Amino acid sequence: MADIPTEAEILAQLPAARERERIAAETEPRAASARYDRRSGRIVIELMNGCMFAFPAAHGQGLREATARQLATVEVVSGGSLLIWDELDAALSVPGLLAGVFGSKTWMRELGRLGGQVQTEAKARAARENGKKGGRPKKARTEPELSTKDQKRRGSARRQAA
User: Fold this and answer.
1) Which residues, other chains included, contact 108 with Cβ-Cβ below 8 Å and sequence gap of 6+?
2) Got the DSSP string for 19-39?
3) How far is 158 from 75, CA to CA, in rounded Å?
4) d(CA 89, CA 20)
5) What b/e readout covers 106-116, taking b as 16+ CB neighbours within 10 angstroms?
6) What is the DSSP code (8-state) at residue 80?
7) pLDDT single digits (tens) 108-122
8) How far apart are CA 7 and CA 155, in angstroms?
């Protein structure tokens, strides 16, 4: 079981923690505000540097099944580094979102798997055409070319066997 730090130990760590927070605030992207855009189905983040970033709400872990009313309750906390939805018990890191991370590793794998299943009309048409031709052609198996030295060895082995 981990030891619980004393009040003195916590107070001793405060200056270093404040310095880490100051550096992060200067170097990491931070949100000034966030909102749900019902028309596009996206979460829109306005950053403190004036830039904007938006992503489909369904991409965010914990947001896929949320209603528009629930998505609209997004709050910016932790100095702009975190978006939270209390009712959904969901939280997403602003620096992570800007890096294309919409949740845990498991969540990201699931997003990738679902993206690979997208069936567009063009993809379906190409699959039908390939099916008419007998499907994807088999890869031709070629034997590796033998070096001159290997050819001589093979020839002498055949002569000895005869």
Assistant:
1) 101, 102
2) HHHHHHHHHS--EEEEEEETT
3) 80
4) 27
5) ebeeebeeeee
6) G
7) 888 887 766 657 778
8) 84
